[in-house]
């Protein structure tokens, strides 16, 4: 079956190669590590002292951050194990190197049979832990053949993905049964995996690990450093519009322009989701005639406090949310992305607002709204009216923030439950097998 998947991948690569080449060289996106990904090379680290290896994988920045409490607890409890970390994107790789300077970090191989087999032979893991998903058929089959146990932690399945799996249920069930543990966020996700053929004993509801890794103290060093750098004063009203997709920046700028006349102390911080859109958003600010400062150019404390701040760096949004009075979480207005992580600003006690399209964070969004800890708006017009109302009502901001923090605290503990599932796999031992 590996041959069939290889053939499909190669055909897709041939068809898409003009776009892949153009996109890679025009944007610089995903060019790094192509050779290691294609051939399954894991760079220059050796783990030949006989200790077992746990291979953690997070696709990009969000998943890398999710893994921080899990890896910390795993290393604390299993000191005789080596831990290694892979990621797929360049931004994820850079963030992984920052977050885990003592761990080997490398790129996840493309799902060609020769690449995944070589990577598995070189690393020789006893356990592979995948953050949220990233279920590739050739990798799963090669891992099973080598006797490697595979766990998905913080698992979820969007309605769109579930519908796709249902269409090929026989194949999905076959591949999903190569996974030894699904530690999923909610009972709804657990039901989806069981419907697709995963044995019930392999599915555990653990909650979301993301709650455990959240910073809740606005006085933390990273947030305080940003406060000093951006010269945020107590009387400022900070509106952070983060993880945005087009046209959310345009909407935010239009609203900010109108509200600035009413709230002279209002400041806007814009944070596009993708690095390749930083220049695009800078050009948008210029077209608006709006004074702005790019974070990447800021080496000393900000002088023009009335300027819009464009956060064109990776890995700082998590700390930046700690400055927000009002936080709009992007990827939720435009209908394609399915939302972004709204738990980070909620943990800091910001007044959180997001749009109607949040299927990737459906359970979290529902809990926040039902607890009166966040506001979900339907369109740009409602966004403006809600932001205007909340900016003018400090009691409502404080009430929303307090409820959000209470909800985050009530949901913590998933890391311990996840570790219990992983410990169960370790007690079950290493399956015999060989590389296919």
- Number of domain units: 2
CATH fold category name of the largest domain:
Rossmann fold
CATH architecture of the largest domain: 3-Layer(aba) Sandwich
The class by helix and strand makeup works out as alpha/beta
Question: In what range is the share of β-strand residues?
Answer: 5-15%
Mean pLDDT: 91
Count every beta strand, where a strand is a DSSP E run of 2 or more residues.
Answer: 14
Low-confidence stretches: 430-436
CATH superfamily of the largest domain: 3-Deoxy-D-manno-octulosonic-acid transferase, N-terminal domain
Gross morphology is globular
Please describe what this structure looks like.
The chain has 436 residues and is an alpha/beta fold. It folds into two domains: 226 residues, 3-Layer(aba) Sandwich (Rossmann fold), CATH 3.40.50; 190 residues, Glycogen Phosphorylase B (Rossmann fold, 3-Layer(aba) Sandwich). The strands form two sheets. A seven-stranded parallel sheet has the order 3-2-1-4-5-6-7, with helices on both faces. A seven-stranded parallel sheet has the order 10-11-9-8-12-13-14. Helix 3 packs across helix 18 and helix 5 crosses helix 6.
Structure described in brief:
46% of the residues lie in helices and 15% in strands. It is α/β, with parallel strands linked by helices.
Topology:
Elements: H1 2-27, H2 34-39, E1 53-57, H3 61-77, E2 82-87, H4 90-99, E3 105-107, H5 113-123, E4 127-131, H6 137-146, E5 149-155, H7 159-167, H8 169-176, E6 181-184, H9 187-195, E7 203-205, H10 221-229, E8 237-244, H11 248-260, E9 266-272, H12 278-287, E10 292-294, E11 308-310, H13 317-320, E12 326-329, H14 343-347, E13 351-354, H15 362-370, E14 374-376, H16 380-391, H17 394-410, H18 414-428
Parallel strand pairs: 1-2, 1-4, 2-3, 4-5, 5-6, 6-7, 8-9, 8-12, 9-11, 10-11, 12-13, 13-14
Helix pairs in contact: 3-4, 3-18, 5-6
